Every structure is written in C-alpha cells, then in structure tokens.
Amino acid sequence: MYPDLAGKNIVITGGASGIGLASSNRFILEGSRVAIVDKDRAALDRVRMELAGVELLVEADVSVSLSVEKAFLEIDRGLGGVDVLISNAGISVRNNFTDISFDQWSRVLAVNLGGMFLCAREAARRMKDGGVILMTASTNGMEGHPCYADYNSSKAGVILLAKTMALEFAPLIRVNSVSPGYVLTPMQKAEYSPEMLEKVNEKIPFRRHADPSEVAALFAFLASAEASYITGANIPIDGGETAGLQ
Predict the structure, then answer these.
(1) Dist CA 231 CA 76 (whole Å)
(2) Which of 2, 151, 182, 192 is catalytic?
(3) What does pTM read for this prediction?
C-alpha cells in the first residue's frame, strides 16, 4: 500500500472491465478518489452496483474529442481536479493483415492511440501543480505479432507518445507506459479459445497469463511517490515473455 495515494484524484479510462476494473479496485483500496471513464454503459451500471467506493462514473468514447472534453468537464465538477490519469481504454481485433479493412485500422488507431492522446492532453492541461500520466501499451508494441498489425502499430505509438510527453513535461508531470503481455481479461477470453490460451501459456516462462490485479499493482507503484524518479519509461509486465527466445 502507498499512503501518498490516499485522497488523490485518479481517472481510469476503460475502467469498467479487465485491467481498468482491477486498477479501479486497487486505487479504491489505496484510499484514492476514483473516476471511471468507459464507453460501455452496461458495464458502468454493473460497476455502480458491485464496486463500492467509486467516486464518479463517466460514459465517454475516448476516440471522440468532444466526448473526452465533456468527460473531463464532468470530472472537474465531480473530483475538482486530476492527480493521476491511467489511460487504459483500448480495443483489439484479430485479423490477417490482408483482411484488415481501413475502417478497422482507423477504429483501432483512433481508440488505442488517438484516445491516449486526447485523454492525456486533457489531463495534462489540468496538472498545473504536477501529476502522473500512465498509459497501457503492450508487448505487442515492442515486437511483431501476426494478425494484429493495427493493434501492434497503435501500441508502439503509445510507447513513443509517453516518452515524448515525459520529455516535454519533466519535471512537473511524470509519464510512463506499461506494456502487459498476455493478461487474462474478458477481451482476451473473447479472442482466444481455451486451447489457444493454453498454447500461449506454453511460450511464457511463467507458464500462465497475468491476472489483471498484477498490472493494477504496477500502476499503483508507478503512481506513488515510490516511483518519483521514474519517467519516460516503458515497463513490460509479461512473465518473462520478452526476455529472450524460449
């Protein structure tokens, strides 16, 4: 636990499921004031019923500039400021390269990279006295993976976006990206059959997917004063997947 996170205003996009939901839960346990931003109204309604302690639930599409602007105005009213942004919302579609339509390409890039830009810009504008911006990238942004050309490209962009922002905003705002490997989220379960999941596990040194709470724990550390000298970094959390050939 990190005492300095108590009372901090934390905004988490894509916070109603997967890594975002686990992160929302972790920061609530830290005593933070948490605002969840998500496009999925049904998921937000479930969070309202099931996750006690959430300060604010905001429905927004992170790929639409006006929607993001309105969301942060609502956060201004509900929280009165932003200390930490966990920019996490993202989508993934599995397709061979030649089967990717330009509409699919555009949508994935708009959410995964455009959404990071829009949310980070709004958060940074509000961090007059400092703050932390953390972005969910992926090991897919560090190396090639078949069938995810659009997703891989978007996540590589997130890593360089975070590094660029870190240089521009130092020392006032710390900016880092986190690159999960395989995480057992609803999105992962929707794309992979149990057989596919097990085949992936065989390639990971830890022989398992990460639990979303493990990624949330990394976000909590990076948001805390314990990480006060870490900025411009991309931190893999992948059970050894990218350490070398297996």
Answers:
(1) 26
(2) 151
(3) 0.95
User: Measured between alpha carbons, how far is 182 from 177 in angstroms, rounded to an integer?
Assistant: 16
Torsion of CA 100, 102, 108, 113, to 10 degrees: 130
Using CA atoms, how far apart are residues 37 and 21, in angstroms rounded to an integer? 10
- 200 in Cβ contact with 143 (< 8 Å): no
Q: What is the DSSP code string of 141-182?
A: GTS--TT-HHHHHHHHHHHHHHHHHHHHHTTTEEEEEEEE-S
Is residue 19 within 8 Å of residue 185, measured between CB atoms?
Answer: yes
Say whether 229 is catalytic. Answer: no
Domain ranges of the chain: 3-182+212-235
Whether domain 3-182+212-235 has CATH 3.40.50.2000: no
pLDDT in tens, 108-136: 999 999 999 999 999 999 999 999 999 99
